[in-house]
Amino acid sequence: MAYAERLPGIGAIAVLRRNFGVWRKLLIPSLLGNFGDPLLYLLALGYGLGHFVGQMEGMPYITFLASGIVASSVMNTASFEGLYSAFTRMSAQQTYAAMLATPLRVSDILAGELLWCAIKGLISGVAIIVVAAFFGAVQGWWIPLAVPVIFLAGLAFGGMALVVTALARSYDFFMYYFTLVVTPMFLFCGVFYPLDELPPLGRELAQLLPLTHAVALIRPLLTGHAPSHWLLHLGVLLLFTLTAYVLALRLLERRLLR
Predict the structure, then answer these.
(1) Which of 44, 49, 71, 74 is nearest to 60 (CA)?
(2) Cβ count near 250 (within 10 Å)
(3) pTM of the predicted model, to two decimals?
(4) Fewer Cβ in 10 A, N or C end of the chain?
């Protein structure tokens, strides 16, 4: 396939609009989930556990936790969309096959799905910021700068999920990804405690995971500080996004065009 055909075109917007149109029919329950889950986390852990933890890295634990939950929620939402929802469209509903019967290309479908994963992650992240702001857990003029970071993180996690979807033969396959990739990132990438609490090897391994860099950018932005080493963190998220896109494109072309 020519190099130009691997680049997405305007057709990606058509895929994005199609996914948005379907999601709009489930808007209310979806938004309730986006607001409800973070509310439970903030109440149960932020206030409950925070009463015993007190301060962490010079801030109330609920503030420390809220910024971490924003990043982890983006990961979970974008991953779920890139796994279960995308696989349903690709396999169960045969939506991708129908799209390929039109002038759309595989690159258009993949780019549209990737953008939709990032948008779903952004919706989830912003919902948590709103809830956290209600409790006074986030503050400062840096908060708007967290929005593009959340979107980039959604692209990275969505791209990784779409690679797995391109390989999957059934929904059961996704349990490996959640158990071996998503859950370890959720537990060991600084969402609930500083990375300094990990042993040296654990800290080094955590630096290889995208959630670590998403947290390192989002937490200071939501607490009124400029992130340190921000170019490095942005570069890692961008590298994951581009690598995942190229790999997912090759795998989807092999699967859909065979």
Answers:
(1) 49
(2) 15
(3) 0.93
(4) C
